[in-house]
Amino acid sequence: MKKMTASQFRQASGSSFGQTNNGILDEKVLRIISDVQKNGDTALLRLTEELDGIRLRTLQVTEDEFQEAEASVSDSFHTALRTAGKNIETFHAGQMEQSWFMNPDLGVTLGQKVSPIERVGVYIPGGKASYPSSVLMNIIPAKLAGVKDITVTTPPDEHGNISPHVLAAARVAGADTVYKVGGAQAIAALAYGTETIKKAFKIVGPGNTYVARAKKWVFGDVAVDMIAGPSEICIVADETANPAFAAADLLSQAEHDEQARPLLVTPSSHIADAVQGEISRQIEKLERKKIIRQSLDQNGRMIVTESLAEALDIANLIAPEHLQLMIREPFENLAAITNAGAIFLGNYSPEPLGDYAAGPNHTLPTSGTAAFSSPLGVYDFMKKSSIIHYQRDALRNVSETVTSLAKAEGLTAHAQSIQIRKDENDAKTDD
Ligand SMILES: NC(=O)c1ccc[n+]([C@@H]2O[C@H](COP(=O)([O-])OP(=O)(O)OC[C@H]3O[C@@H](n4cnc5c(N)ncnc54)[C@H](O)[C@@H]3O)[C@@H](O)[C@H]2O)c1
Ligand SMILES: N[C@H](CO)Cc1c[nH]c[nH+]1
Ligand SMILES: [Zn+2]
């Protein structure tokens, strides 16, 4: 990991930290999207052959495949799915929103009706690893919100199968419709529909840069949760941090993707060196060394600051997906943090705990977007309608306000819609 001072980091990244040049990527992604729009399932099957290297005849996972998958995973995995699922459900139940009504004036009822989104598409990444945990994290909040129709898409492996762990998780979470398609082509299918895949009203779920860019391009034609790309971890560590723990946590996110970003920000040069030493030692035991090394070399940074306050400022500038505060007084410093997807406090709250089992969602804003967006939650699967009810006299009381504003806008038909009722009301009062 490159070691640098806070000012070198500021100069190198400026406000464009996390942004990449998307020209070539966008060209490719747009070509895929328009291919799927024009050619539907034929494009999906062809692109799956080209990009995933597997020739499929059909896209949908069958009931037999589900049953085989469920039978093949271990009892302990089933137990882990249920335990994690329960924790995720308990946390997300706290996010439920209810419809509400108010009566601000006599004869007036106003309110907000909350309804689930009817049809949602869930993307589960599957290129470099399979993610049953993401199945739970994306489907459980949708189910709590009351979404009726959930379609899952995820790329097939080299044999044309979906990981049995992913299928078992889909069953536990309550989703039965799974299609074997990944990448930008899956996002296009969910956004525009094909012969077999129904158009969704909203697409959720993380993925690699192709998936993230495709979500950006289809946004507007369909809702998307966020543009969650490659994983990130930023650890703010003072001299109380355990260097072995910090190194293990940085490595955990580096193993997701060559483009994952592991960052350490510390006022202690000694801690930076100790963490670097631990990384070199621990990496040897890990399986995904190649991906990890690329991630550390290309995107890893150790930023040495003048003070803890400056380290917290840098963390806010980065607005990381995951922020670990491995410092003496994490709760006391929480107020200083304004931009982060999820904040893990202390030496015993490592990021992978949040990835799998703590309960809060692991689909989080990346690439600096935590400065303006939030974790995936039940609220992502709900929409609101305003409710307005005025009785006759209440409308008369407000008629002057409405007609005067309408006339000022030159919209006399608007004014008339109020006036016609006022006239009727006045006539009734005269009787
Ligand atoms: N934020 C989260 O909650 C979260 C959770 C899990 C994973 N992740 C991230 O999701 C990402 C998963 O990436 P992945 O690659 O393993 O799986 P993925 O499913 O996102 O992407 C695989 C698909 O990308 C497409 N693709 C690959 N190379 C391509 C190319 N050259 N041109 C066009 N399309 C191409 C293929 O169609 C393939 O099916 C990682 O970056 C990981 O960090 C994030
Ligand atoms: N850390 C990922 C989000 O960036 C989520 C995940 C799933 N499985 C393991 N990790
Ligand atoms: Zn992870």
From TrEMBL:
Q: What keywords tag this UniProt record?
A: Amino-acid biosynthesis, Histidine biosynthesis, Metal-binding, NAD, Oxidoreductase, Zinc
User: Which enzyme type, at the first EC level?
Assistant: oxidoreductase
Q: Name the InterPro entries for this protein.
A: Ald_DH/histidinol_DH, Histidinol_DH_CS, Histidinol_DH_monofunct, Hstdl_DH
Q: What is its EC number?
A: 1.1.1.23
Q: In which pathway does it act?
A: Amino-acid biosynthesis; L-histidine biosynthesis; L-histidine from 5-phospho-alpha-D-ribose 1-diphosphate: step 9/9
Listed under catalytic activity are: L-histidinol + 2 NAD(+) + H2O = L-histidine + 2 NADH + 3 H(+)
RNA-binding is among the record's keywords:
no
What's the protein here called? Answer: Histidinol dehydrogenase
Which source organism does the UniProt entry give?
Answer: Lentibacillus juripiscarius
* Gene symbol of the encoding locus: hisD
